[in-house]
Amino acid sequence: MNSKTIVFNLNNIDRVAKIICSKLNTTNILFLNGCLGSGKTTLVKHIVQELGGDHNEVTSPTFNLLHVYSALKHDVYHYDLYRLKYKNELVNLGIEDVISAGIVIVEWGSILRKILSCYDYINVDINLCEQESYRKIIIKYKF
């Protein structure tokens, strides 16, 4: 699995979104991991914008579990699985149905990553840094 580590200021998060989007032509599945407040949904806003969608529509789908955004070439299916604890809770989400329909972004997706291990994906771990506005991310590519 190839990986890349980047330390960035949140003011430059669009640069990270460009790097990730450049790989979304190889796979359409993106897993985002990080503690609460690390910037997962903020990164999704910039990814949606980079894909030609309206970043103002992006909000955390913690309670709905899924939000769908229109972009230029694909719809973006944004899942947040924070509240889910068991594999059987994933059955009704229809994730396998949308994999071929657009870009699938999953926050808190470790439980799902195991199920979708047969697919190619990008995994992004977002870590807080000592300086409040900085993040260290590790991007791993499973192609």
Per DSSP, the total helix count is: 4
**Beta-strand fraction estimate:** 25-35%
Overall CATH architecture? 3-Layer(aba) Sandwich
Number of domains: 1
Determine and state the CATH class.
Answer: Alpha Beta
Assigned CATH superfamily: P-loop containing nucleotide triphosphate hydrolases
**First-residue to last-residue Cα separation:** 8 Å
CATH topology group = Rossmann fold
Polypeptide structure, described:
The protein is α/β, with parallel strands linked by helices. The protein has a single domain (2-142), classed as P-loop containing nucleotide triphosphate hydrolases (Rossmann fold). 22% of the residues lie in helices and 34% in strands. It contains 4 helices and 7 strands; from the N terminus they run βαβαββαβαββ. It has helices spanning 13-23, 40-50, 95-98, 110-115, and strands at residues 2-9, 29-34, 66-70, 75-80, 102-107, 121-128, 134-142. It has a 7-stranded mixed β-sheet with strand order 1-7-6-2-5-4-3, covered by helices on one side. α1 packs across α2. The mean pLDDT is 93.
List the helices and strands and how they pair.
Layout: E1 2-9, H1 13-23, E2 29-34, H2 40-50, E3 66-70, E4 75-80, H3 95-98, E5 102-107, H4 110-115, E6 121-128, E7 134-142
Helix pairs in contact: 1-2
Can you describe this structure in just a few lines?
The chain is of the alpha/beta class and about 140 residues long. The protein has helices at about 15-25, 40-50, 95-100, 110-115, and strands at about 1-10, 30-35, 65-70, 75-80, 100-105, 120-130, 135-140.
